[in-house]
Amino acid sequence: MRTELKIAWRYLFAKKQYNAIHIISGISAAAVAVVTAAMVCVLSVMNGLGNIVENMFSQFDPDLRIEVRTGKSFYDSGKTFDALRELSSVSLVSQTIQETALLQFEGKQMPIHLYGVDSVFSTLTHIEDIITEGHYEVYDGAFERAVLGRGLAWQVGIGARFINPIQLYAPKRTTKVNMLRPDQAFNDEVCFIAGTFAVQQTKYDDEVILVSTALARRLLEYTPNEVTALLVKLSPDASVRQAKKDIQQLLGKDFAVLDRYEQQSDFFRILRVEKLLTTLLLVFILLIASFNIIGSLSMLIIDKQADIRTLCHLGASHQMIRRTFLLEGWMISTLGAGVGLTIGISICLAQEHLGLLKLGSGTEYVVSAYPVAVQASDILLVASIVLLLGFFAAWIPARKIKRGMRS
Predict the structure, then answer these.
(1) What is the pLDDT of residues 236-252, one digit of tens each?
(2) What's the pTM value of the predicted model, to 2 decimals?
(3) For the chain, does the N or the C end have fewer beta carbons within 10 angstroms?
(4) What is the distance between the alpha carbons of residues 394 and 333, in angstroms, rounded to a whole number?
């Protein structure tokens, strides 16, 4: 293999008079480099976008969320839940009641997603960091308060400084509907707006309203300790995977323990599918670029017929000559991959630290520059794909060398 490598190296890098074959080889390596750099940049940008959205959700979503698999609510009581709070990996546990309700304000009505939260919710999440108007408060000691998503507040036409209350309606759970008096089939509560928040995600900003668990229990007719979910904040040194496993084992199969990715499973599944489709599209482009390697190597084999005959007379086997040109083609691909990875990583690091490519000015963008996040797994994936396709591109013409030696 050492002799084959030396010959292939000489064909590719030795000083020589450039001709069409050498120019095509350079173009082949350049094509592979461009596509490789593009793959690194595109995958890194998608990683950056995913990280930004993940950070947005983490402002509102807890580390872990516990739900019942069958039904809607369960009781947060008993030895099992006491043991949950005593786990070393668990820092805080918050009760929440979530249900669909109706909001009414000065004749305007809007279906909402009601979040009943307790006093530790603000400690468990970063809700206070995303308040855009007013302040976070769901009970001031005398009156019930509410915190709305910014989009919901805009649709209803209300702000934190409004003194008029809003009304919340929800169907009664324990009463049959009287068709003669349908208005009596609903519970209603009144609360005042304390502030608005923005997660920069429609599912929260346009639908969610935060109230106290006491108001939610009265409105939805939930009994004490009845909840729809428990929100868990882990200790700073706790492993999410291990904590999830321990809690799942403690609670049993009747409960689902969801991490942040599983809480937003639909969104992150879409991101993964988009990344996969983008990767496949770029691989297809790389496959087309690899045809340049097939062409340049085929022409090189024709050009080196005299060298092939000489090597045969010196005792070189057919396998040795095949390996020589196979290495020649693979070196073209490796050269392109190396240059492309270097260029791609350099561009991404420059964008990450300097923000060269701007999104625009103003407050309509979450970030001012295109976000990027270079991941080692993506670099290994791109390098593996490029080298694998380069190997097959070199193998196709190299396997026909025996037929060329006979002519």
Answers:
(1) 888 889 999 999 999 98
(2) 0.73
(3) C
(4) 9
